[in-house]
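The material for today's practical consists of a large collection of protein records. An example says more than a description, so a record of this kind follows:
***
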Amino acid sequence: MRSNRSGLVGLITGAITLTPRRMALGGLPDIEIVQGILRELEESGLTLLISDTGGKSERIPNLVRTFQEHRVEGIIFVADHHMKVTLPGIAGDTKLVLANCFDDAGSPAVLPNDRSGQKALTEGLIARGHRRIAYLTLGPEMEATRLRVAGYRDALAIAGIPFDPALVTAANLSADDHLAEEQLLWDALDRVLALEEPPTVLCLGNDRMALRAYGMLRSRGLTLPDDISVAGYDDHTLITETLYPKLTTVKLPYAAMGVRAAQLLTSMVRDGNAAPEAPVLVGGPAVWRDSVRPGPANRISELPMRGRNPA
């Protein structure tokens, strides 16, 4: 016997029993992380065992215990949105990798680079001439909100634009209350549009919020993007490619996160590599579509020439 290796890897997820509410919190379905893991492990010679939590965190300790009884070499835990988790201790030499989440124990983790994503979007808006950029965020308790607001502020600071707290407000709830969410988003729009110097562009916490905002803005008689530009986050293409105008957004790199999580676990299990000391951050690009037009600072180039002949 060369070793006691089983060739098995356990995956714990809630993606299979994903509910509409959890999709709203997580943006794109976390099934894409699972698919990325599957694709990467296909050529590794490792066999993947998948267990679904059914949305019940109390099931996790039993699933961990069951996997270890089957002598898995490693466990990947996938969360439905960027969050902190508390998992039971992993016994023996079994390796653990967290995907889309992190813990206080410093377990190896693969996370979306939320700060970089919002920074890139905001920098792109500034480059297109926008200076009054409102940000209607997800719930303030969410890790993504803290990081994305930091990225938004990074971009403003680099451009020398003062941060205006009146332009940033929470417009989404973690609780399952669609009516309250609609009211909160309507109120957030009221607040920023009533400012003495209103925004020229609205950034929304995710694409679903942007979808709602389209209707609310049009009910106020505004034309998109002529009167105001709109951007989302996630690149949920069922929304972004079907809206009119098509929605500018930032891609959440879920599939890539799954691949990176599988690569990390494989390197620890097969190659004996040490776990990284810091989380592995995976970035996604800003995707520019028709919902953003040049801001006032750039529109002078759109004015027709009058009273002079072209050279």
Q: What stands out?
A: Residues 114-252+287-299 form a domain with the Rossmann fold fold (CATH 3.40.50.2300). The chain has nine helices and twelve strands.
